[in-house]
Amino acid sequence: MSVMKATESEQINRKRGSNDDVSDYTYTHNALRQIHIEQKRWSLRGFSISGLSTYFQIPELDLCVDMGECPMSALSLNHVLLTHSHGDHSRCLMRHNSLRRMMQNPTQAVYYIPEPVYSLAIDLIKAETLFEGVSEERFDLPRLECVRAGENFNLAYRKDLEAFPFNVKHSIPAFGYTVFCKKKKLKKEYAEYSREQIISLKKSGTEITNDVREPIISFMGDCLGESLWEEQHIWNSPVVVCECTFLDPDEMGMARKKGHTHIEHIAQALAKVGGSISCQSIILTHFSMKYSKKHVLNVVSKIIPEEFKEKVKVFL
To answer: pLDDT at residue 182 above 60?
Structure first.
């Protein structure tokens, strides 16, 4: 039996926590064990561990973001936003489509694919279908929508919802998304009018409302930490979901090399844009597989500035 060097043992204990047992570590890294975070009007569910799987679901918005795994709870949701093509975020897109068809769901799900990988997605889906033994004559492409950075689009079955895709810096082309709620708001000049006056104006054909867009949530996807301050508009969303793959001081170089965010970048972003942050929750996701939950919580508690600790939630 080989003997582990002391330095190797210390490193693993630092990552996993010396008192962590195997069952706890396995439980934390089970991709079908969903995390739930409740908000006022909706809930965020899913799982996100770097390299293993990332998927998010918001049932009240009929929305998924990424599909690194496809639990049964995803099958009723009709819209899927893909951030990028890495397998831990994308590999179950067509599993989602296949299971819905198997269960005879009459509604065709819509998969929103970033423009840089749109044609590749079509090739991959076709190859996967043929690999499973479906003839080319029977090949039926699911409903894919090509989305471009900076161009808002409506969700197909939720006309009250709009998504804004934006570029983020990663090791491959990648998007973040902000989801907006569209509504009509009474014009300021009519704010003091009585109900009877409002009814009278409407009957006369007067336009008494403005169309407004209110951000609901922003997803950063996988990205370098600098995207957090380059895309400052995200901090106007009530909820910001951002990755935090690396935690330890000696991993800053690795974060840049891999195109990921280090927790020090989170702290830097909060310092840079702190005065303009209006979000209520900052949800940290996508931690490296090598960390235990205990290690993650300890580091987050130490690094996140005190004034933001109540906003920050760990998606574990």
So the answer is: yes
